[in-house]
Amino acid sequence: MEKVVTGLLVLVGIIHLLPVSGVLGVERLAALYGISLGEPNIEILMRHRAILFGLLGLFLVYAAFQPSLQTLAIVAGLVSVVSFIAIAWSVGGYNESVRKVVIADIVAIIALIAAGVIHGVGRNQI
Predict the structure, then answer these.
(1) CB 23 within 8 A of CB 50
(2) 3-state secondary structure the chain
(3) Rounded to 5 degrees, what are φ and ψ at 66?
(4) For residues 73 and 58, what is the distance between their CA atoms, to the nearest angstrom?
(5) What is the pLDDT of residue 14?
(6) Dihedral pair phi/psi, residue 85, rounded to 5°
(7) What span, in angstroms and rounded, lies between the C-alpha atoms of 72 and 59?
(8) How far apart are alpha carbons 72 and 93 in whole angstroms?
(9) What is the CA radius of gyration of the chain?
(10) What's the pLDDT score for residue 68?
């Protein structure tokens, strides 16, 4: 079962690493999110967001192979994806590209909940 948790955390880590290419500039961000970033402040914020996603993605992948960090990784991943979905749903009116992000985050939630249950059961059996 430990390998299942590892695989699920790697999957969620990859989902979080996908937006990292946004750090390369406006064109990549526009392709990722289907939005125009004509204002420099929005570009700065979005590129920084890409870096933060990269850090979280790397942590999730690293924690996948470090059982002592898996609980923290699952919680951090859940905070990330649940908060994004909550914001997206509360604002509404998002485009097709952001809808794809919402779907990816729903997949991540399912994976993280499964990983959490399996990880928790495994810890209770020790």
Answers:
(1) yes
(2) CHHHHHHHHHHHHHHHHHHHHHHHCHHHHHHHHCCCCCCHHHHHHHHHHHHHHHHHHHHHHHHHCCHHHHHHHHHHHHHHHHHHHHHHHHHCCCCHHHHHHHHHHHHHHHHHHHHHHHHHHHHHCC
(3) -130, 90
(4) 10
(5) 97
(6) -65, -40
(7) 10
(8) 33
(9) 16
(10) 95
What torsion, rounded to 10 degrees, do the Cα atoms 87, 88, 91, 94 define? 160
Q: Which amino acid is at 21?
A: S
Domain ranges of the chain: 2-124
Q: Per the structure block, which two tokens stand in for 73?
A: 């990784």
What residue type is assigned to position 70 of the chain? Q
Placement of tokens 């979905």 in the chain: 85
d(CA 20, CA 24): 8
pLDDT, averaged in runs of 10, over the chain (126 residues): 95 96 89 86 92 97 97 98 97 95 97 96 66
Distance in angstroms (rounded) separating the CA atoms of residues 98 and 35: 9
Residue 14, both tokens: 């990859």
